[in-house]
Specification:
The chain is an alpha+beta fold and 491 residues long. It is built from 12 helices and 8 strands. It starts with 12 loop residues before the first helix and ends in a 16-residue tail after the last strand.
Length: 491
């Protein structure tokens, strides 16, 4: 992996050559040009030079790099230094570094470097901590938030990697201690990884820049306001306990992480990226909660269908934070559409539990028809923009996932783009049908109807007296369209 691109052994030699030119030859040539244009020696105790050299080598935009090179002296004069001894050791903040979100933390240290006769030498160097505004990993800024202050986060604690920039931490909760600060480095690192993983997963299924995803730099690929839209993620948020809200994560429960990140997905896609008020209340709010649980289940599921809790780690309860385990077995979870009439399921989280269970049952049926993929991540596009079919997609010009679990993810994400603002359960169901017609020509329509009807969302399901704000009486329907009645079984 290089920058924000991936390479595989099967890639053509030109792919490796392009990465080598972009990540090695280009930055070295830019630094040589800086040295040629600025031959004067510079003081070793001034970290401004090191910070600007770093930005020239690391910035992904060649236009910006050329600007840094050609205007090196004037940019350097615009940067200032602020000493700080309160952070442990002698730290200097370098202000106004172009391409950096916040002042760069610089600390002088000794490093081993190759010398003569296979020996190493100790040399002084600047160790820099940079939050890049233009970053190949520009999806999330992750840190602790013990104070519970969502406005001040730049200087909050983040883990430090070892000499090889590896972030490897163990769960070091001390015996008889309930202090989560004991494992904060592990927690923040896992948070950073999970947010990036989910970002990349949703990106491959269509939640990209143009759709309004969350990135600090959109690389001129469109999107809402273009740039500066990365997720600010908090581990161990001091504003509450054992909960998570988008965008403030507080624990190590991956179900909770993915649930909250999915709120960003559904909010941006439903009604368009500029309309964030489509899932605020009533059934639409319940759908938003349900999608969060459903995607958390899909990401963590295995081929052997089982029963899954939601938030069991955070709550320290085997059943988790929902009334039921999620299961395709109706003897374990018998929720249907009309379960919303029960006061326990009448508010958004309860309705979300019903919707997630319905989607989980539909997904189980799709897996029984099309099989299970051990990987959810679609293939990385090649350098020419084409996507290899491999064992992930069906043969053909349209990229249709071939397995039941990956197809279901694609249908649900595409349906979010197709459904109206403030959708009902019926709207969300019908949008999944429309997504299948768009993607496959409707090849799965009857299978989807069979699965939805098994949980009361057949064509004869009714809502009597409901409004956008909720209420009304929900009536199960178990019928499927006439064309789907032949040789189709009800789950």
């Amino acid at each position: 992996m290089s920058g924000n691109q991936q390479t595989r052994f099967g890639d053509s030699p030109t792919v490796f050559e392009e990465l080598f030119q972009g990540d090695c030859v280009g930055p070295l040539a830019a630094l040589r040009e800086v040295a040629r244009l600025n031959p004067q020696p510079h003081p070793i105790d001034d970290p401004r030079w090191a910070a600007l050299y770093f930005m020239i080598a690391a910035h992904p935009d060649p236009i910006q790099v050329n600007h840094f090179v050609q205007n090196f002296s004037s940019i350097l004069r615009g940067m200032s230094l602020t000493p700080n001894t309160s952070l442990g050791g002698s730290v200097i903040f370098v202000n106004n570094v172009p391409g950096s979100v916040s002042p760069v933390k610089a600390r002088m240290m000794y490093i081993h470097s190759p010398g003569w006769d296979d020996e190493t030498e100790l040399n002084l160097a600047w160790r820099l901590e940079v939050e890049m505004a233009h970053n190949c990993f520009s999806k999330v800024f992750a840190q602790e938030n013990w104070r519970g202050d969502n406005q001040v986060w730049v200087d909050n604690h983040r883990p430090e990697g070892n000499a090889w920039l590896e972030f490897i931490f163990e769960y070091r909760n001390k015996p008889n201690s309930s202090d989560p600060k004991d494992y904060i480095d592990l927690s923040v690192t896992q948070l950073f990884y999970t947010v990036n993983m989910v970002h990349d997963l949703y990106y491959r299924y269509g939640f990209d820049e143009a759709a309004g995803n969350f990135q600090q730099d959109n690389y001129r690929r469109g999107g809402e306001d273009g740039d500066r839209d990365a997720i600010i993620a908090y581990s161990q948020d001091g504003s509450g306990m054992n909960n998570a809200v988008f965008i403030t994560m507080v624990n190590m429960d991956v179900f909770s992480f993915i649930h909250e990140l999915t709120h960003g997905l559904s909010t941006r896609l439903t009604g368009g990226r500029s309309n964030s008020g489509c899932l605020d209340w009533g059934e639409s709010g319940g759908l938003g909660e349900g999608w969060g649980d459903f995607f958390a289940l899909m990401v963590r599921s295995v081929e052997e269908s089982g029963d899954f809790p939601m938030g069991s780690w955070a709550s320290n309860e085997p059943m988790g934070i929902r009334y039921n385990l999620y299961s395709t077995n109706t003897s374990v979870n018998s929720l249907t559409y009309e379960s919303i009439n029960d006061p326990r399921y009448a508010l958004v989280h309860g309705m979300g539990e019903v919707w997630a269970e319905i989607l989980w049952a539909v997904s189980g049926h799709m897996i029984s028809i099309h099989g299970f993929s051990s990987t959810l991540l679609p293939p990385q596009p090649l350098s020419n923009g084409t996507v290899p079919v491999g064992d992930f997609y069906l043969p053909g010009s349209t990229l249709v996932p071939k397995h039941g679990n990956t197809l279901m993810i694609q249908l649900v994400i595409l349906a979010m783009k197709l459904q109206p603002c403030r959708p009902s359960f019926f709207d969300a169901r019908d949008a999944i049908m429309a997504a299948d017609r768009f993607l496959t020509g409707g090849k799965n329509e009857c299978e989807l109807w069979v699965a939805f009807s098994s949980r009361g969302l057949g064509i004869d399901a009714l809502l009597k007296g409901g409004t956008l704000w909720g209420g009304g009486h929900h009536v199960n329907g178990y019928k499927v369209p006439d064309q789907c009645k032949v040789d189709k079984k009800i789950l």
